[in-house]
Amino acid sequence: MTTTTPPRTLTIRVLLFARYAELLGCARLELDLPFPATVSTAIAALRSRPGGESLPARLFVARNLEQVTDDVALEAGDEVALLPPLSGG
Amino acid sequence: MHLTADPIRIEELIAAVSAPEHGGLALFLGTVRDHDAGRDVTRLEYSAYGDMAEAECGRIVREATARWAARVAVSHRIGTLAIGEIAVAVAAAAAHRAEAFDACRYVIEELKRRVPIWKLETYADGTEAWVDPTALEGVIPVRQGGAS
Total structural domains in chain B? Predict the structure, then answer.
């Protein structure tokens, strides 16, 4: 009983804002991803949801409050946000 | 960084950066304009990714204060704003005006570039659009039946 089975999935929290929240019809959701997963894995899962096909080809993503590139690995419990073009100020 | 649904109080920002060793204070105020890309704007609605906005603005302020010997304070409104209201305020104070102006300019430019805040414009004809500085038209119309 000393062997442990590696997790097969990991769950992340996804936040959507502004136009992207409209496209997918919600502002937050939980996503179960196959392990291991990167930002790209999460984006692909979001694109396959209803409305996700309308997301633009180039997406800006933040992981745990910092912008990251698509190849960054995700961990269970990560907060991943899709950032539409910024227009503050 | 202070994200607030209430009107921005400039005097609080000024007090936050004031110090006896400062001889110059620059204050930038961004206000709601009544037109954008040739259309009459009647109001703006700001939304933000609050936690990241605070984190990113903190990074920007630390960059500014490391580069210039200045003290900086920032406030940004969220929610619905009328024409003429202050949407964003940046106060920067330093021993001399050059550092105060430079730090203030740096912070507002980086804020617009990096802080996750979004602007929904409502026009005189009742239609709405998300402001998108990267789009050809500058805005993306809200689809009918959209979430907001």
Answer: 1
pLDDT tens track for A55-65:
999 999 999 99
The alpha carbon of residue B146 and the mean position of all alpha carbons in its chain are separated, in whole angstroms, by 26
Distance from CA of B134 to the nearest CA of A (A): 7
Chain B residues whose C-beta sits inside 8 Å of any chain A C-beta:
30, 46-49, 51-53, 55-56, 76, 87-88, 108, 111-120, 130-135, 140, 142-143, 146-148
Cβ neighbors of B38 (< 8 A, separation 6 or more) are none
Indicate the SS3 state at residue B7. coil
pLDDT tens, residue by residue, A9-24: 999 999 999 999 999 9
Q: Which domain holds residue B85?
A: 3-143
Please say whether the beta carbons of A80 and A74 come within 8 A: yes
Q: Does any domain span residue A3?
A: no
Domain-embedded: residue A77: yes
The model's pTM = 0.91
Q: How many Å apart are CA B23 and CA B21, to the nearest integer?
A: 7
ipTM: 0.89
Cis peptide before A36 (omega within 30 of 0): yes
Domain of A63, CATH number, reads 3.10.20.30
pLDDT value, residue A3: 67
Residue B148 lies in a domain: no
Q: Are B116 and A66 within 8 A, CB to CB?
A: no
The domain tally of chain A equals 1
Interface of A with B in 13-72 (CB under 8 A): 15, 17-19, 21-22, 25-27, 62, 65-66
Q: Distance from A9 to chain B by nearest Cα, in Å? A: 26
Q: A24: domain range?
A: 9-83
pLDDT < 70: residue spans in chain B: 143-148
The pLDDT assigned to B147 comes to 42
